[in-house]
Design a protein that fits this description.
Helix content of chain A: 40-55%
CATH architecture of chain B: 3-Layer(aba) Sandwich
Largest sheet of chain B: 9 strands, mixed
Radius of gyration of chain A: 21 Å
Order of helices and strands of chain B: EEEHEHEHEHEEEEHEHH
Strand order of the largest sheet of chain B: 9-8-7-10-6-1-4-5-11
Distance between the termini of chain A: 33 Å
CATH class of chain B: Alpha Beta
CATH topology of chain B: Rossmann fold
Strand content of chain A: 15-25%
Strand content of chain B: 15-25%
Oligomer: heterodimer
Number of domains of chain A: 3
Helix content of chain B: 25-40%
Structural class of chain A: alpha+beta
Number of helices of chain A: 10
Shape of chain A: globular
Largest interface: A-B, 18 and 12 residues
Structural class of chain B: alpha/beta
CATH superfamily of the largest domain in chain A: Butyryl-CoA Dehydrogenase, subunit A, domain 3
Distance between the termini of chain B: 40 Å
Chain lengths: ~375, ~260
């Protein structure tokens, strides 16, 4: 159950999603354009500042409130939801958690208001969840007291928009006992040698910004190290643990959107002389979709509530992410089926949901990695 | 500048709306009750004026207990405080009696400017702003699509079917606005949190010195004699092009004032 303020936030974001996002998002999706106008309005509503204290221009809410907003956005469209998710939990949050006061003062005010976006560069063309595979290297040039970065990053959300200002790059900064030492370094957009490659052609999330990034002798001050040297692995694990709850909320929103659209369609579409919602074949599909959505929501609510009150949440976050993403894929498939031929047409929201669902089982830790995390947490 | 914005809770115009079978008033139980859409534009205009000129924005609502939800939502957009006129005897009040009550409440607030939506989506009478201006002895600047404030001088562009008229007056004034005037903001989470702490004063008829007999069904100057559901939508007009099709289309558009 949401409390009074969370419910008021949910309703506000729901109105915004229907009035502002829904009418224009299909065109952005079709043309693969980033919806700057929507993002600006989300920024004015303070969505990017939800979990941050007022001291940095935030809304003084918490991670739970952020997830409520993400779920409601994803109920209408996943591209804007992932833009918010990545901007806050992958972009601004690591700087807020691990940054020096100076780094926070430099970056947070613009990130927290949503006027600017930050990205988190972890994944590489040949490395995802396996930290040992990282190839991007940063070497400290003692003469100039600068990091010199070489390598590349893949699938980085929000890394190439007109308002992207900085990317936190995970890089190998040394080796101890044969294990790679990983640190996170802030690289401002426009730094010489830092190149943003053209946007990918994606199956889904077509109105979100995703690029490959390359680093050729990129030099940034030694002070751009985020947090402690060699703690990069622990830092991004913490970042990803939190992010999984947000992705679970996003997936729940998509699953709910599938219920919404299917309900509407089942009442208006006729076959054999009556609305298809009269047929048990459709009723049971929709009932099952609702059950899946509800349980996914309970799972992320639990994980987020734990996070907010400072309890352990690693396992619950993995469970929520795993369950919500898998049921989102199922709901999207069923919603498409209910829509018949129309479900295969891009102009119908369920077609977007279908295309947007698959990545949920992959991004921020694949389903397999979630199962690994859960099994390990159970002591295996 | 002291600004009071009139906010009315109405049944959502996007959902099914009914009149009660027993007393022909709006059936609020079966409705999704929301802030009258046009009032959100009035709130936005007041907030913009406060941002530009300073001052204070107060929400004024007359309505049953559940209207408190709409007051809270209005406050989450940014106004400073609210006054809720709440009295069981108000049920069934006509527009004239409503204006008497709101005018009495406004007198306690002494505003420089009252801003209202040009109409509510339930009654659509458009008469309240005029009545209030008359009762308060204030200027009536109604149907604005633009409002500019220069000291005590107010200028509006009054939207008409043919275009607009420029109307000027001094404060105190009642301004009613259309949805062409601005784009209302969405409440922020901070606004939602702060709204909980903002003062909402409740006033009864007794507080306003109004006798219960002057309002409600007993004091009503109008009565609903009968009501029926809107007839189902008729089929459109088909224009067959026998050489005059273009002319007929334009004639239709002119008759509907689209061109």
């Amino acid at each position: 159950m949401l409390n009074e303020e969370q419910e008021a936030l949910r309703q506000t974001v729901a109105e915004f999603a229907h009035e502002v996002v829904a009418p224009v998002i299909a065109e952005h999706y079709e043309k693969h354009t980033f919806p700057y106008d929507i993002i600006r309005q989300m920024s004015k509503m303070g969505l990017f500042g939800l979990p941050f204290p007022e001291q940095y221009g935030g809304m003084g809410g918490d991670y739970f409130a952020l997830c409520v907003a993400i779920e409601e956005l994803a109920r209408v469209d996943s591209s804007v939801a992932i833009t918010l998710e990545a901007a806050v939990s992958l972009g601004a949050m690591p700087i807020y958690r691990f940054g020096t006061e100076e780094q926070k003062a430099t970056w947070l005010p613009q990130l927290v208001t949503g006027e600017a976006l930050a990205a988190f560069g972890l994944t590489e063309p040949g490395f995802g969840s396996d930290a040992g595979g990282a190839q991007t290297r940063a070497v400290l040039d003692k003469a100039s007291n600068e990091w010199v970065i070489n390598g590349s990053k893949a699938f980085i959300t929000n890394s190439g928009t007109d308002v992207t200002v900085v990317v936190a790059v995970a890089a190998v900064t040394g080796e101890t006992d044969g294990r790679k030492e990983i640190s996170i370094i802030l690289v401002p957009s426009g730094t010489p040698g830092f190149h943003v490659q053209p946007g990918y052609s994606k199956v889904g999330w077509c109105a979100s910004d995703t690029h490959e990034l390359t680093f050729d002798d990129v030099r940034v001050p030694a002070a751009n190290l985020l947090g402690n040297r060699g703690r990069g692995f622990a830092q991004f694990l913490q970042t990803l643990d939190e992010g999984r709850i947000a992705i679970a909320a996003l997936a729940t929103g998509l699953a709910q959107g599938c219920v919404d659209e299917s309900l509407r369609y089942a009442k208006q579409r006729h076959a054999f002389g009556q609305p298809i919602g009269n047929f048990q074949a459709i009723q049971f599909k929709i009932a099952d979709m609702e059950v899946r959505t509800h349980t996914a929501r309970l799972a992320w609510h639990d994980a987020a509530a734990r996070l907010v009150r400072g309890a352990d949440f690693k396992r619950q976050a993995a469970i929520a992410k795993l369950h919500a993403s898998e049921i989102a894929v199922t709901n999207a498939r069923e919603a498409t089926q209910i829509h018949g031929g129309y479900g295969f047409m891009n102009e119908f929201p369920v077609a977007r949901f279908w295309r947007d669902s698959k990545i949920l089982e992959i991004g921020e830790g694949t389903s397999e990695v979630q199962r690994m995390v859960i099994a390990r947490d159970l002591g295996l | 500048m002291k600004i009071v914005v009139l906010v009315k809770q109405v049944p959502d115009s996007g959902a099914e709306r009914n009149l009660r079978s027993d007393d022909s008033t709006v059936d609020r139980d079966s409705a999704n009750n929301v802030i009258n859409e046009m009032d959100e534009y009035a709130i936005e205009e007041a907030l913009k004026l406060r941002e530009a000129h300073g001052g204070e924005v107060t929400i004024l609502t007359m309505g049953p207990e559940r209207a408190a939800e709409s007051i809270r939502k209005a406050l989450s957009m940014g106004p400073d405080k609210a006054v809720h006129v709440l009295d069981d005897a108000l049920h069934g009040s006509c527009a004239l009696a409503t204006s008497k009550v709101l005018a009495a409440a406004l007198k306690t607030l002494e505003p420089d400017l009252v801003i209202a939506g040009a109409e509510s989506t339930d009654a659509r009478g458009q008469v309240l702003p005029h009545m209030l201006a008359e009762r308060l002895g204030a200027a009536a600047l109604t149907g604005a699509r633009k409002l500019t404030v220069d000291g005590a001088t107010l200028t509006i562009e009054r939207q008409t079917e043919e275009g607009y008229e420029v109307v000027t007056a001094s404060t105190p004034a009642v301004v009613s606005v259309w949805d062409t005037i601005n784009e209302p903001r969405y409440p922020s989470f901070k606004g939602i949190m702060e709204a909980k702490k903002k003062p909402v004063q409740t006033l009864s008829l007794g507080d306003l010195g109004i006798d219960a007999g002057e309002v409600g069904f007993g004091g009503a100057s109008t009565a609903v004699v009968e009501h029926a559901r809107r007839p189902p939508r008729q089929g459109g007009t088909r224009v067959n092009d026998d050489g005059e099709g273009g002319v007929k289309l334009v004639e239709f558009l002119v008759s509907e004032k689209f061109v």
